[in-house]
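$ fold --in a.seq
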Amino acid sequence: MRIIRMRLKDFRSIEESEVRFDAANITVVEGPNESGKSSIADALAILRLHKDSTNKSVVKNLKPVHRDVGTEIELEAQSGPYHFTYFKRYNSQRSTTLSIHEPVVESFTGDAAHERANAIFDETLDAQLWDALQITQGQSLLQPLLADIEPLKGALESTGEDPGSSGGGGLLNRVADERLRYFTETTGKPKGDYAAAINEVERLEGEVTRLTDDVDKADRLATQFARNGKDLLEKKVAQVDKAEQVADLEARSGALGDLRSAFEVAELTLAKAEVIAEAAASAATVRTTLVDELDAARVSRDSAAGQLAVLTTDLQPHIDRYESSVVTLGEIKAVVLAAAEASRLAADHLSRAMAVTDLASVVDRLQRADAARSEVQDLVTYLDTHSIDETVISEMAAAQLALTTAASRRDAVAPRLTVEQLGAEQVTVDGVVVDGSAQRSVVADTLVEVGGIVRVRVVPGDDAAGGSSDVADAEEKYAALLRQHHVGSLEAAQSASAERSFQSARLAEVRVELASALGDSSHEALMQQHATLLARVGSLPPVADDDTGDAQAADEVAEAAEVALETAVAEASAAQVEVDIAREARDAATQGSLRATQQAEMQRVWHDDLERRLTLARKRQGDDDVEARRVALLTELGVAVAGVDARRTALASADADMLEAELTNARGSLARLTTDVSDIEASQNQLLGQLEATGANGLQDEFDAATADLEDARRLLMSTTARARAARLLHATLSAHHSEAQRRYVAPFKQAIEALGATVFGKGFTVAVGPALTIDSRTLDGKTLPFDQLSGGTREQLAILGRLACAQLVDPAEGAPLVIDDAFGYADDDRLLAMSQVFNLVGQTAQIIILTCYPRRFQDIGNAHTVRLT
């Protein structure tokens, strides 16, 4: 089976996606997580196994969340002689269609389409082979079950002896059926009457054990009931003692609470006194600070006024200097403009002279390049139309030699026919009259006739007939080469090859000439340069009548004008510097005067504000009153501190923390004792109920009956066990004989794995393959390890090599695509490269589909087709 195309719509999180696969080689489907790669493998299984009417959860879960739409799966594939398109819609508006395109056009819908598709799969696809070649996420380390896959068995049997030829299959099947009466097929566990006998013995043994435990349990319950009664009495006595202790400690704790309340009142009084005293101290500090700031502001105000008077006097000289420097700069700038105009005219004359010189050089190079390009084109055309070279001559010579050799070989093995005319009757060979005698090699059916007397047909042997076929093939190959290259003989081809070699050498010479003419430029760049120079010459102003066009003279004039301009610019720069200096000095003086004015105003405003604030404060409370209040409040604060200290001392002597800890612990002990008494009483009630229930069950009679039933069941089990073991021993003996025959087709499968694995692990690589066609161990450079002890990466690579060998061995007409979902998570770069080479080899005959979110792992597969999902 080869998958051509798959389309999914409203499949889980996929709104719509279509993927086309390379049916003949390898397709790598790349995409991030949740882009729908694994959904491809899931959709293949669901389409094949489930009708559109199914309500199974595996199909219901395909429906997108919060959208009432149907899930669509469409597959286009080739399987055996069939080319078909298979479509199903699940969950909503359900439908199924099957369109068969080849070998006969057919169409089906509904259940008929499902049944016809299953019939095609059953006819052309081995289900076990399909399952073995699917590697889903997380399963790449597991080996497939290959031994019972019919297409693989057929491929292996064609390489050696049929494993079923040893005979005895019918007896083995009958013995297997007998063994299956007693043991399961896969795990070998007992079943049927044998399992029932074992289960009955185990049940009765459990019943006897249970009854024995019940008797022992009754004894234990009685002992526990007596022990609990003793503990309950002790706990109740301790409970009374602890209650008396808690009452005493609570009385002492009440007296301590009054003392603690008095301490808290003293602390509140102290806090209030501290706040009031701090406010009075702050008011005194503010008053002192305000007086000091007013004195400082008065001094700053007078200083700023004096500095402003000095700066105002110094400003005028700076203004005069700036205005004088501006006039001088204007005069010098007029000189600079005149020099610049003279320099510009000289530069224009120089540019035109240089452009004319460059244009002449470019025209010469273009003429040489055009001539060389034309000849190159003629030579390339000749070489393209005359394809006979040394390689072609070698092919023709080899074909002519093969023809001569085939004819010689044919004549050497063909029989020789000699015909002599003995009488007057006419003799002909293949219709040609023989005059006297004739001799020829018989390489084809030859007819010898004597008119009206005899007809003899001479038929060459197989060797001669094969030789004639070889000669015909060699003649056709030689003639095809002559026709392909339009010559009549090898000699004519040799002459054409010599002429082609001469023209090829001339092409190399002309290309050197072309490169010399172009230099570092391309032909297009040179043409662009020519156009640019033409435009430049045309755009420059015309020269004076006395201008000779000499570039050197123009350069000297331009240089003199540039010197004059530089001198004028230097003088202008110096004048500009003087203007800038004068401006900066004027601006600095102006800014200083402005700052001094602002500073004087600020100092005045600050002084007036402080003076107003101090006047208002003194009206509310004089300076002496502020100080007197501060002293009085400090005295009240001292009294509050003494009160707090006295109550703290009294509280410390009462040891409040120790009393609180003792009371807390006593209350906890009392609560625990109360809980213990309650728990023990509940346990006693429960034990009493269990003792009463146990005593009413008639344990001894029940125990005796169970013991007798157990003995009977054990005798039946012994008889059944003997029959089961005999069946298993006979089956093992016959299976061993069958396995020996089966091992005869293990060898070609082992060889296929080792041939592929040599690319990955090197020439020292071999494997041991079991009868089930699983890899039991790997040997590398003489060191052997069981499969389960190999690293995860190696086990994964071997498991995939086994599937690749299977895909390679199976007839492509009977095969299935190898689907790999996110494998090689354990492989390093070297192994990835080697496995890519193996994929490339197997992909020449088998379809391989790789689903991955790590494209780098498969980037080295040479003939892979890549599909990217987003």
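$ fold --in b.seq
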Amino acid sequence: MSDMKSDDRLKNCVCGAERKKEDSSELISEGTAFSGVSFSSNDECYKSFFRQNHVVMLIIDPENGAIFDANDAACSFYGYSLEEIRKKKIFDINTDAARNTRTNMQKAVSESGKEFVFEHRLANGELRKVRVYSGKVFISGRTYLYSCVFDITAHFQTQRQLIESEDKFKSLYVDAPVPYQSLDAEGNFIEINESFCKTLGYEKEELVGHNFSEILHPDWKEHFLHNFPKYKSVGEIMGVEFELRKKDGSHALVSFTGKIGRHHDGSFKQTHCVFRDITGERENLITLIESEYRFRRLFEDLEMVAVQGYDEERRVIFWNRSSELLYGYSSDEALGNRLEDLIIPDHMRQQVVNDVDRWLNEGISIPSGEIVLQGRDGNPVPVYSSHVMQVNHAGQKEMYCIDVDLTEIKRANVELVRAKHEAEKANRAKSLFLANMSHELRTPLNGIMGMHRLLKGTRLDHEQEKYVDGAVASAKRLTALLGDVLDLSRIESGKTVLAHEHFNLRETLTHTRELFIPACMEKGLELVFHIDENLPEMVCGDQIRLVQVVSNLLGNSIKFTEIGFVGCEVYYLGDCGNSCVQVLFIVSDSGIGISDDELDSIFEVFAQGEQTYVRKYQGAGLGLSIVRKLTEMMDGSLCFDSVKEIGTKVYFSVPLEVGVMSEELDVKVDDACASDAGAPARVLLVEDEAINRLSMQKLLEKHALEVVCAENGKEALSLLSNQDFDVVLMDIQMPVMDGLEAARRIRSGEAGEQRKDVRIIALTAYAMAGDRERFIDAGMDEYITKPVEVEDLMNVLK
């Protein structure tokens, strides 16, 4: 409501002021001379009165609002060319509603209204307040409206400012939330506001007409009487303090700010003053000064942090004890010197000066960070430096630098980097050692197992056959141990990458169960499997690693169970977001169980339930460590529930992505195949080790394959250049030419273009992480590690 009243007052003031001013002007008389006159648009009179008139004038068709004509002054004012403005309608320029504009045009035609105040839009979008004098004019026999337009924006704004000033005065003083008082020439109260009364506790009637000195503390009365005449002559006061007496007898320290009001002749009229109760502020200021002193002493005596202060000219104004120790300059030596002359290295001087200037002038702060400065002795000083810009009581900017010495941290960091490099070097040495050991152990193991399989194929009596089976079982056990060691090494080094492929979960678990049936039958154990019907048939994840976890747990259960059962239950726990389901596996047995003490360390590498020389159960203690690490890699969880001499339950849960059905399921579980149907007829065996070469040759020949042998890659290239082979079994590490180089040359066509696509299978003792990828990149089609299981080899060959 107050805004509406202000707008009405503003309109009335503008109308009155402008009308009074414009009515006395020749401009209006020139414009309104058109009223009721008849012209032809080509008349010289028309051109004289309209076209060349310096008053902004428009000719408007009252029927449709079209602008029929505009003079040069109008084109200049609105920012349109004559052609452009003639295409406009008055509705395009006048911001008032079209309905109101039509009504006003009819008033002008009927001469019931001739003077209007509008807001017009210029070509550049700017809005201007205008006064328009309008009336009828006849041009070439038709009735038009002439409009003389006067820009009153400046007057309008002036009047608005005057009204706003009056309103502000009322709100700032009379209605303000701060105490206000007005005194006459004698210092008597003329006006006080409600806030004044609330602050000091008086009623308005108790003070108006009384002298200001009556509410002053006795110590301040003389001060007022002496300085009030000066205030009247100067015309304003700012921050003048008095101690006032409240109605309840207490006192308040206040700060006055005010100006005097004058009559039109410049003589004194009254004072206008507001004050703030600064009693609490003064107490806080004293506390702040004491606190500042304490903190200044703190920064001066702080040993770990060097603090320096600089003025706008980068001259030192503060230099604490830590700065003296860090940079080597005493406070007396540093004070007054420039920053760049003390601790800034030569190559950084100009940059630092520029950065400080930008902060001072443009407000672009210097970021915190590590920087190497320079001590008095010229040696580098690494610090972490932060910067703060403050404004002092005089309004001048001061920059403070807070530096933390990084010398010891840098030294420790160098040691850490060195230790890291040593650790990485040791890790590489370990990986190389494991790779070499894997190769050196698998190569003779392959020969041992191969020769024993050949031996088993001969005529043996029952006792001899038992010895051979024992030797093969021992070799397999050694191979499994070697595989566990390499698996653990790959996992701990972070080189194990989980596969992400679709597989049939139910069929995978069924195949896993079939693998353990013979072992359970051998020990007379019942093998119990339960698969929840709610489980999705197809899932996506690392099938081989999932089977490895289940197999390790089942193998453990069978090993430590003599009577009873071994079981595996698999349940659907529910959705876990992102098209994944949570699957719970429970592997249980009725075996020897695990004590509470043993449960704490059961997942540690090489941990065993038996810690004596009398051991009933064999093993290196790697299986459960691998199980835990693989479960964690699959974002799963694992826990044990076991009772000594009763049995054990192992719970592990993993998220698996729901997969899609496929006509061909890639079930990567050991599935021995006895049939040799589909195997290649002719094989090139490339192997430098004689025992391995002989055993592999004989084993392949027993499967009705024709085998040609080569001792190195060079011989293989020669044989392949002259003979046809269905497949090449290629060892990797060989003299003269290794298997990788031979594979590359075969693929490049060195053995003949017609043989460059021959199938090459790597037959190697290398089994470390990344080996398979390296061999495939060299041109191999498949990869089998030694010692070779005949069934696996025949499956790959087919």
